[in-house]
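Checklist before submission:
- one chain only
- standard amino acids only
- sequence pasted in full

Submission:
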Amino acid sequence: TNALVAGLVPARRRGLYTGWFGVAFGTASVAGPLVGGLFVGLPGLGWRWCFLGVVPVALAAALLVRLAPHRAP
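Returned file contents:
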């Protein structure tokens, strides 16, 4: 969120990071229903596959969090 960006990013770079956050949010808002509709519309796949598609994304996010360097506050 913007509060997270404001707390972690220096003031002179907040606009850039807020912009990228907006791009990611907008892209996900459009791509999510499209990919979900694709899963539901394919033969042999049903609506349950929409939920299973989140698993690789969650695993990748967990790996990135684990590999990220820890910075003390």
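Reviewer check: The chain has a mean pLDDT of 86.
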